[in-house]
Design a protein that fits this description.
alpha/beta, 8-stranded parallel sheet, 3-stranded antiparallel sheet, 10 helices
């Protein structure tokens, strides 16, 4: 199974919701969401997973973003509201969010750290009921010391970590496979790169699943900036079924002006690419092509959303066929 690790930005959530609406998010694809914003989009996306009875994993102790702060701010705002009608509306909204948050269809997960280990050892919750996510290779010492007490429903560990042989429960291997360039224009140097072979080898190596950050990468940024170049990142399978990513970069990259023109240039490279005819025609890829054919610039966030939709749908179809 594939467990894409997403940071819960607006367009990543919309990507999941639109795939669910279209029936194109395979049951073989179970997203891990680290919420970064306390937003209606986040909760409406979880609601869609619950309605569709599609598994999703949500991290309860996010380490990036402002989710926890915004939740506490809303609680304080509700407590301090003096007008009764407004207070009741805020309370009802919070109660609705809590109902979604606590729904049995949402699988709880925790990023493993000292606080989580202490909470488990104090028996405030059992590791076997949650997904234990290790993003740090040094976390192996927890498992050396406490062993079975930390056995999770699934345990996510970084690829190549020292505690691969220590843990005996169901392991998901996590790798940041994306080579993120400092600037979009830098992708011109290496337009085609190997992304991963984990989907081919994970079962042979005894793992129940594999995880990555897709073409978004592990690095978290609060906001973007106007780029000199537009780069469209498209996943595809190579001759030996390895997953590769091709970067289609615009040509008029002297200034930040005219993003619509840059999008058109990048799309022309995609459509004229020799591999274009063999890439699976996913919703995400078709949406990009439709925007190009209609002379519409969808915006930088939507371009990334469509590329991510393409990757998730394509990977789900691959795993179903296998």
């Amino acid at each position: 199974m594939y467990f894409p690790y997403l940071r819960g930005r607006q367009n990543e959530l919309l990507c999941l919701r639109e795939l669910l609406d279209a029936g194109k998010l395979s049951s073989q694809v179970i997203p891990i969401i680290e919420p970064v914003k306390f937003s209606s989009t986040f909760f409406s996306t979880l609601t869609k997973f619950i309605e569709m009875k599609h598994k999703v994993i949500v991290i309860r102790n996010p380490k990036v973003g402002s989710f926890s702060k915004e939740l506490n701010d809303m609680r304080k705002k509700t407590e301090n509201e003096s007008e009764e009608n407004k207070k009741q509306k805020l309370k009802k909204t919070l109660e609705g969010y809590k109902s979604i948050w606590d729904d049995s269809g949402i699988q709880r997960a925790y990023l493993v750290n000292d606080n989580v280990i202490s909470t488990i050892l104090e028996k405030k919750f059992a590791a076997k009921d949650v997904v234990m996510i290790n993003t740090e290779k040094g976390n192996y010492h927890y498992y050396e010391e406490y062993g079975d007490d930390l056995t999770g429903k699934y345990t996510v560990i970084p690829k190549g970590a020292d505690f691969e042989d220590i843990i005996e429960d169901d392991i998901i291997i996590l790798e940041d496979s994306y080579k993120k360039a400092k600037r979009n224009i830098d992708y011109i140097v290496s337009p085609d790169e190997l992304f991963s072979r984990n989907h081919i080898v994970y079962k042979k190596r005894g793992f129940v699943g594999f995880s990555d950050f897709s073409m978004v990468g592990n690095e978290y940024e609060e906001s973007g900036f106007a780029p000199l170049a537009i780069a469209i990142h498209i996943m595809y399978f190579g001759n030996r079924e390895e997953l590769r990513v091709h970067h289609f970069v615009s040509k008029s990259n002297e200034s930040i002006s005219d993003l619509a023109r840059k999008f058109e240039e990048a799309m022309e490279k995609l459509i004229n690419w020799e591999q274009f005819s063999i890439i699976p025609r996913t919703i995400g890829l078709n949406n990009l092509v439709d925007c190009y054919n209609n002379g519409k610039f969808p915006g930088l966030g939507v371009i990334k959303k469509y590329s991510l939709m393409h990757h998730l749908e394509m990977m789900g179809k691959y795993l179903e066929d296998k």
